[in-house]
Amino acid sequence: MTEPVTPAAAMWDERYRAAAYAYGLAPNAFLAAQSGRLRAGMRALVPGDGEGRNGVWLAGLGLEVDSFDLSSFGVAKAQALAAERAAAINVFAADALTWDWPEARYDLIALIYLHLVEPERRIVHRRALAALRPGGLIVLEAFRPEQIERQAAGARGGPRDPALLYSVEALREDFSSEEIVVLEAAEARVDEGRLHVGDSAVARAVVRKR
Questions:
Q1: Per-residue pLDDT reduced to its tens digit, 167-206
Q2: Nearest to 116 by CA among 74, 179, 159
Q3: Residues 91/68, Cβ–Cβ less than 8 Å
Q4: How many whole angstroms separate alpha carbon 210 and alpha carbon 208?
Q5: Would the pTM count as exceeding 0.70?
Q6: Which of 60, 74, 121, 175 has its CB 3.0 to 4.6 Å from that of 207, i.e. a possible disulfide?
Q7: Is 2 within the bounds of a domain?
Q8: Range list of β-strands (E), 34-166
């Protein structure tokens, strides 16, 4: 029996229904900047990968990639992008909150604009850490509360609900048990498709599991 479509999945389905890729085809710039930390054969997970731009890019580097998203339309477009680029990637539909996260499987988990309210954010970050092998990395970028001001100035991107935006202080607390390699509040000129555009307030982290 087909599972019912949740309101969140329906919202993302509507966003990804069009033929154009809402956030473009290029990987997130902060994730791409970590390429020196990556090597072929690493096992990677990309939750909330949307239309697949980040997972397909990682697969192109020779990583073994699992990529999932709430939206069936996003998953279909990720599969199409992987096929077009001859990238071997395992793409499937799942919810980060209800997915059966494995233990100590991955060398990299990319959390790129995966915005959740605080209780859910903590749950997913805890599960992501458990899914990493010792020495594995989390690479994260998310919009900060200051993004609301950037939106008023014309930037496109990020939730308009402050409860869904991430502060550096909250991320430091979430990952306090691990080695924080990078943690910063940054001002970024974002250019990702038609929905992430303009001067933006972001939080960035690279965390290594002890």
A1: 999 999 999 999 999 999 999 999 999 999 999 999 999 9
A2: 159
A3: yes
A4: 6
A5: yes
A6: 175
A7: no
A8: 43-47, 64-69, 89-93, 106-112, 132-143
